[in-house]
Specification:
With about 625 residues, this protein is an alpha+beta fold. Helices cover about 60% and strands about 15% of the residues. It contains 16 helices and twelve strands. A hairpin with a 3-residue loop joins strand 9 and strand 10. Helix 13 runs parallel beside helix 14 and helix 14 packs antiparallel against helix 16. The longest helix is centred in the N-terminal third of the chain and has 51 residues. The model has no long low-confidence stretch (mean pLDDT about 80).
Length: about 625
């Protein structure tokens, strides 16, 4: 996987394509009859058969109505070309209604065959996993400009592109809707005039049908001559061939009319047609035609023609408003994107730089925090600050630990070195100073060995490499051995030891060496922090599920601010004496590994109580 985000995006796209290619091929090559087990196709066929029967009935009805409404007279019905034209239309409509499903299915099969042929010509391309060629990867990675483009900028530009496309789509839909609204308004106005004129024709009657037709023809001609809205409309009367019989302007309207509206009216069920076009002078007009529903001699249809100049001007104003609104939306998108960059990307960049500084060891740097809990970036800054503080504290404790260990190592080494130089000057092994020097060297060497072993044990325990050899053992015996080991030192320091050994065994499951290490470590702390004349009390008892050991001293105690940190590795309290600072941390880790507990309570100036708990061993 390349580190270049462009290559990664292309590889992810190809991976998605490979995952869905088999599914896509299955859908493309599947026939409608077999899709989803054929259940959907069965429903479609049932619905189609019902619609075909209903469609035949409507077809016959509408065909009959269309024939009689489009014929200007009974004599026109007898014309062969009129009957032939409507018969051909009837046959085409019947074929369309009855064979639509078979036609669609046939087209689908043809397309499916073409797709199968093409895919078969490709060969094994379907089963081959699509991968990004190495040359393309190398070419993209060589173009450093693409790599230099931040991903947030790509996301912002992508969001802006989507917004532009959405705005264009909305603009087109809005302008189309506005245009249709204006045009439909003009169209409905002219249709209402046709309806009014048709209603007036009902009042004209005669003794015979011919006189009635003549009366209506005269009335229509009079309406044309006396048309009151000549400044808005051109009113015309048409014969059965679409020719102009009369017009409100007194001309034959040459150059401003078309036969499209008349042909639509003849084909329409309601006998109305509409046409929008430009005249020879370039003016946009709308022509509406309505067949006369009654016999009126040679008058077969009426036509109204009106200019769309005012509508076009209104549409231009609408376009301008729509463009302004679209520009406002785009401006808002750009401003919100810039705000996003400023409020999210810039702070994240600051966080990234600060985190990089912390990684390089600059632990004193901090990020500004506002304290707003609803701000995710602000919470992230707070987390980074707390991490830096923790690392700084750990670094401080590590340095103090190194200094403390160095001091602890230097003290016995200095003593050993001094006595070695002294022994070089002494030739008599029976000299008291000779024996004393050897004893001190031996004690300091043991002290160094214990210190190094403690450090190694802690390191192994932290890395999970410290092996615990656990077995059933008597806790009373182990504690007694540790107390006896420290008893001589306790007496040398002028302290009083109080320990009543229980008579009964207390079985536990633990590692005897690690358990002894825990007891001696805690007793060593009690001795170090107790003044001469103080008392060290050791208690042991068994509870229902656990055994408890309590070690009480009357030493200087632990300050409250240090008490919660004394089990932290490398930590040394304000009143601590010599030591590495890992003793209690090691004890706590061993007790945790043995499923035990360690609790420390202390009162400054009065002493400390350490309570250890271990699960009882039951067979």
């Amino acid at each position: 996987m390349s580190d270049n985000w462009v290559v990664s995006t292309l590889e992810n796209a190809l991976s998605n394509w490979n995952d869905h290619l088999a599914e896509i091929w299955s859908l493309v090559s599947q026939t409608p009859e077999s899709f989803r087990g054929g259940e959907i196709w069965t429903v479609i066929v049932s619905i189609h058969n019902a619609l075909v029967g209903f469609g035949y009935g409507l077809l016959v009805l509408f065909f009959a109505m269309g024939v009689f409404r489009s014929a200007a007279s009974f004599r026109e019905l007898q014309r062969p070309e009129f009957a032939l034209r409507h018969f051909i239309r009837f046959l085409l409509a019947k074929v369309t209604v009855g064979s639509s499903l078979e036609l669609i299915n046939g087209i689908y099969k043809i397309c499916g065959g073409v797709v199968s042929t093409v895919m078969g010509g490709i060969g094994s391309a379907i089963s081959t996993t699509a991968t990004l060629p190495d040359k393309i990867v190398e070419a993209i990675e060589d173009v450093s400009f693409l790599e230099s483009i931040p991903l947030w900028l790509v996301s912002l530009l992508g969001s802006l592109l989507i917004t532009v496309l959405l705005v264009l789509l909305v603009e087109v839909m809005f302008l189309y809707s506005a245009t249709r609204s204006y045009y439909n308004g003009v169209q409905q106005t002219m249709y209402r005039r046709f309806s009014s004129i048709t209603g007036q024709l009902k009042m004209y009657t005669g003794e015979t049908s011919q006189k009635t037709a003549a009366s209506r023809s005269v009335a229509l001609r009079r309406m044309v001559e006396q048309f009151s809205d000549k400044d808005k409309y051109e009113f015309m009367l048409l014969d059965s061939y679409g020719g102009v019989i009369a017009s409100s302007s007194g001309t034959d309207a040459e150059g401003i009319v078309t036969h499209t509206d008349f042909e639509q009216a003849q084909d329409a069920v309601d006998g109305q047609g509409i046409a929008i076009y430009r005249t020879q002078s370039g003016e946009m007009v709308m022509a509406a035609c309505c067949l006369v529903p009654y016999a009126a001699e040679d008058v077969a249809a009426m036509r109204l023609v009106t200019s769309l100049t005012l509508v076009e001007e209104q549409l231009k104003r609408t376009v301008v408003v729509a463009l302004i609104m679209g520009a406002a939306v785009l401006a808002f998108t750009i401003m919100s994107g810039l705000y996003f960059v400023r409020s999210i990307v810039v702070p994240l960049g600051q966080v990234e730089r600060t985190a990089a500084g912390i990684a390089l060891g600059e632990l004193d740097v901090r990020l500004p925090v506002t304290g707003d809990e609803r701000d995710e970036v602000d919470r992230l800054r707070g987390t980074i600050n707390r991490m830096a503080e923790g690392l700084e504290e750990t670094e401080k404790m590590k340095n103090e630990f190194i200094s403390s260990v160095s001091h602890e190592l230097r003290t016995p080494l200095t003593s050993i070195r001094g006595w070695v130089e002294t022994l070089r000057t002494l030739d008599d092994p029976s000299d008291e100073n000779y024996r004393k020097g050897l004893e001190i060297i031996n004690n300091e060497t043991a002290r160094l060995y214990n210190m190094v072993e403690e450090l190694l044990d802690f390191s192994r325990l932290q890395n999970g490499r410290l092996k615990m050899t656990c077995r059933p053992l008597d806790l009373v015996a182990e504690l007694t051995d540790a107390v006896l080991f420290c008893e001589a030192r306790i007496q040398r320091e002028g302290l009083v030891l109080v320990y009543n050994e229980p008579e009964e065994m207390i079985p536990v499951y633990a590692d005897p060496d690690r358990l002894r290490q825990v007891f001696i470590n805690i007793l060593d702390n009690a001795i170090k922090y107790s003044a001469p004349g103080g008392r060290i009390t050791v208690k042991l008892w068994a509870g229902e599920y656990k055994a408890f050991i309590e070690l009480i001293d009357q030493g200087r105690g632990i300050p409250p601010e240090d008490l919660e940190n004394v089990k932290t590795k490398f930590y040394k309290g304000s009143n601590s004496v010599r030591g590495s600072g890992i003793g209690l941390a090691l004890v706590d880790s061993i007790m945790t590994a043995l499923d035990g507990t360690m609790d420390i309570k202390s009162t400054l100036g009065r002493g400390t109580v350490v309570t250890l708990g271990l699960p009882l061993y039951k067979k």
